[in-house]
C-alpha cells in the first residue's frame, strides 16, 4: 500500500490512504485536520522513499532527527507527531511505532495583547466595513478566526443577545456573548451587504469572494495585518490577538475566570489561566508584601 506524493489527482486513491481517510471520518476529525494528517504522512513517505506502512522504529527516529536538524519549528514537529501517531496507531495498528515519536518541549510565550485604545484604532483602520465587523466580532465575542469565518446570519440571536457557535474547537457547540455595540456594528454590515446583494437568506454572515462561500481565514488574516499597519501598531497582530485581548480585558474588569473560560470555549481552566499572566491592570492592582512591611515598620511592631 502507498500514500504517494506523485500520485495524480485523477488516479485512484491508494488503499492505505483510503483506509486512513475512513478512520479519520469515523472519528469525526475535521476536514482541515484530515488534510493536515494526510500531508504529514506524505512528508514522511517522501523522506522514506517508500510506502510509510513499511516504516521501522529506526525510520521514525531518523525522521524526527531530520526535522530537528532541518530547522523545523517545535510546534510544527509536534503537529507532525499528532498526524503520525494517528497513522501508526489507528490506520496501521502499529502502536510500537507511535511510542517512538517524541514531542518537543518549548517555552510557552505570553501572547501579545492590544490595549483597548489599540483595538479601537485597529477596527477603524479595517479595509472595509465587512472586515471591521469580522474583526469586531473576534474581539467583541472572543471568537477564533475559524469561528468568525463560519458564522451564518441565523447564528446571531438578537433576542437573547447571543452568538451561536456550531462545532467550534473540539467539535463543541457553545454560545458566545453579543454586546449591543457589536450587534449595532453587525447590523450596519448586514444592511451594507444587503445593498451589495451579497447577503443570502440564511447565508454566511461574512461571505467570501462568492456569496455562496464564507470568507477564508486567510482573508481575515490579511485584513488584520493591513489594518495594523495602517493603524501604526508595531506589535505582532493576528486575529487570535483580538481573542487574547478580549480575555485579558475581561479579566482586568474583574470578570470571574471561570466565566471567561466558558465564553472562550476552553475545556481546561489552565488554558484560560494563561491570561492572568498578561493582565497588567490586575498585576498593578496587587499590593506587594514589601509595601505592607514598610507600613508595619513605620507604625511600629505589633504589640510594641
From TrEMBL:
Top-level taxon in the UniProt lineage: Bacteria
Keywords for this protein: DNA integration, DNA recombination, DNA-binding
Domain Tyr recombinase as annotated: residue spans: 109-288
Gene3D superfamilies: 1.10.150.130, Intergrase catalytic core (1.10.443.10)
Core-binding (CB) domain mapped to chain residues: 11-92
A Pfam entry, by short name: Phage_integrase
UniProt family annotation: Belongs to the 'phage' integrase family.
Protein name (record): Site-specific integrase
